Amino acid sequence: MKKFVTYSDLVGIIKNIIGYEIIFPTTSRHFKVLKTVEDLNLLNLNVIRPIEPIKQFFFPAKESLMYEKKDLKQIILGVKSCDIQAIEVLDKIFLSAPADNLYQNYRNNTILISCDCILPEETCFCSIVGGKPYVEQDDGVSDLNISFIDENNLILESFTDKGEEFLKHYFSDFDLPKNSDELKRNSNRTVSSKKVIEYNAEFIKEDKKGKYYKTVKYTYELDEIWRKESDKCVQCGGCNFICPSCYCFLIREASISSENQYRDKVWDVCHFTGYARVAGGANPRKYKYQRFRNRYQCKFVYRYENFDFYACTGCGRCIEVCPARIDIRKVVISLVLAKGEQVLV
Tens digit of pLDDT for each residue in 227-286? Predict the structure, then answer.
């Protein structure tokens, strides 16, 4: 189902929704929970994805496992395609049997409203890892999508039963978009896609026949390359924490006193020395370069072999957050060159 809506109409309806926590991106590129209706400014939907990933709303950085969770209904607005792809990765992990009940509860009580990314930046590379800067029906995770035709007009399109019910409930009286509106929407998407390709002209243009998978998988003999690329890494964990599809966690439990015990789940980091360490002190990834390599294996090999898509969605957050300015795209290119292959395919 599609509806043609003005910006002011959308804002007016969102402000009057009852029973949901409204989460939206701000001008400072952070997600914000709506407290007062005066705070809502949906023009920020047009900018690049927020700094933090939306996984925090389904898979919190720290979460108690000792208390029953209340059902919290939430609407997350302005989710970009790179985060939508990441949720697909998390769904595979946390909703496969046996499902993680906490994660499942968050997902069931959330309406995901994505938005076309018409202003990508130089760190964006979704299009060269099998993605694109907009969401379509086949992407399977977004409930509803917003496409700005211009600053004042947009198209709402539902992708799931949850999204269609939302449109019927709040936008039933609105008209269908005209053919000219959809043509303009498609033109905006084409321009955005070209921008991403232009920004990545020096990197692998597109992933034909699993190029990234083959490049990263067969590199265990390239220890010197991995050592060189990981040399600047300070093991801060920033790339793991900011990544929308990283899902490793630890279960911690302790008794502070007879009346005070806790058991919680916290994010873990594969770059940390103790990540792979087992009982007795053995560590199959004892050295930094091995842990560094493992992250690339996880993004481009393990998930590809198991689910036929990459865990890296090209959001570029890891590039922005890294204090050593390590660029995941340049690391892959160094592997390609070390293997004597062509960079541009």
Answer: 999 999 999 999 999 999 999 999 988 877 777 888 899 999 999 988 888 888 899 999
CA quadruple 205, 208, 210, 216: dihedral positive or negative? negative
Angle made by CA atoms 154, 55, 43, in degrees to the nearest 5? 25
Q: Give strand ranges (E) for the chain.
A: 2-6, 21-25, 31-33, 62-64, 74-79, 110-115, 144-148, 153-158, 249-257, 260-267
Read off the tokens for 134: 């907009």
Whether the CB-CB separation of 328 and 246 falls below 8 Å is answered with: no
Q: What are phi and psi of 134, to 5 degrees?
A: -155, 165
Tokens found for residue 289: 């370069």
Residues written for the chain: 345
pLDDT band at 39 (very low <50, low <70, confident <90, very high): confident
Measured CA to CA, the distance from residue 203 to residue 338 in angstroms comes to 15
Give pLDDT, residue 344.
44
d(Cα 189, Cα 195) in Å, to the nearest integer?
10
Q: Nearest Cα to 238, choosing from 324, 321, 317, 312?
A: 321
